[in-house]
Design goal:
CATH architecture: Alpha-Beta Barrel
Largest sheet: 8 strands, mixed
Distance between the termini: 24 Å
Radius of gyration: 19 Å
Number of domains: 1
Strand content: 15-25%
Order of helices and strands: EEEHEHEHHEHHEHEHHEEH
Strand order of the largest sheet: 1-4-5-6-7-8-9-10
Number of strands: 10
Number of helices: 10
Length: about 290
């Protein structure tokens, strides 16, 4: 299988075939993201994609899940994306689910009927990077979208019958807007009501604009316990029906809660950690990673 550059995928796609149909990210301006900076965005040719699927079919007849990389496969025009999905189903007869990353722009380029068409072709889950519900934060990190567009995109995915997994970033508001970020993010999660939420913690990577902001004193990352306080605020203000995770490798306090059933238990656990403020209760720094 031929891949261009570094490939990333959600943790839940660990056992999926990674099929790269775009290279890089069409937006590629977020200040915190180092992932696609060395790539120039392009959509792979249909022949390249067919060759990769043919190779997978030859050596992986038992493939049941496929993840479409890179950053925003939904930006591909619908006729071509439909061709890809049809070819996947033709060549991988045991295929049960296809997943992909998406941004608001890519989702909103599709009509409701087009999203339903992709659902019928096997697109079972979309991972939407929301990052924050605070418009001030979205603008600062150059997310290139608005609260309203993110909400509309998330709702369209769910209405099409596709599972919605949302990523938010603890700490992305900095110390200055920690509470505003947490409360506004809780609001968009409540209004969007995704199936899954993954709350990751910001890790500032050298070479990114956010790293330069930190070096110049324009961005101050919350302390570990301040990040946990932010997580508490976010969960306390979120009313949703799905799984809320903060067990990514970047997080200091691994947590998994089925909302709303486990909400109070999660808050009690966080309160116990905050009351003790014992660093030994947190994931060690050397274990944290993107």
């Amino acid at each position: 299988m031929k891949y261009d550059g570094v490939i990333i995928r959600p943790p839940s796609e660990a056992e999926s075939l990674i099929l790269q149909i775009t290279v890089g990210c069409s937006h590629n301006r977020c200040t915190f993201c180092p992932t696609y900076k060395a790539k120039r965005f392009r959509i792979k040719t249909f022949q390249e994609i067919k060759d990769a699927i043919d190779e997978a079919a030859q050596f992986g007849g038992a493939i049941e899940r496929v993840f479409l990389a890179d950053g925003d496969a939904l930006i591909i025009p619908q006729p071509r994306l439909r061709e890809i999905m049809e070819y996947l189903n033709e060549k991988l007869p045991r295929l049960r689910r296809v997943g992909t990353y998406a941004n608001a722009k890519g989702v909103l380029k599709k009509t409701a009927d087009e999203l339903r068409e992709l659902k019928e072709a096997g697109l079972g889950i979309i991972y939407l990077g929301v990052e924050s519900g605070d418009q001030v934060v979205l603008d600062r990190v150059r997310k290139g979208t608005t609260y309203e567009k993110l909400l509309q995109a998330g709702r369209m995915v769910k209405e099409a019958g596709i599972k919605l997994s949302v990523t938010v970033l603890l700490g992305i508001g900095g110390s200055e807007r920690s509470r505003e970020h947490a409360v506004a993010t809780a609001r968009i999660l409540t209004e969007m009501d995704p199936n899954y939420v993954g709350a990751l913690s910001v890790i500032i990577v050298p070479g990114t604009p956010l790293y330069e902001e930190q070096a110049q004193g324009h961005f101050v990352l919350p302390t570990p316990f301040a990040l946990i306080e932010e997580l508490r605020t976010m969960i306390a203000h979120t009313d949703m029906h799905g799984l809320f995770f903060s067990n990514h490798a970047s997080n200091y306090l691994p947590l998994k809660a089925r909302m709303p059933k486990d909400k109070e238990g999660a808050l009690r656990l966080i309160d116990e950690v905050l009351a003790k403020r014992d660093p030994a209760l947190l994931r060690p720094e050397y274990f944290r990673a993107l």
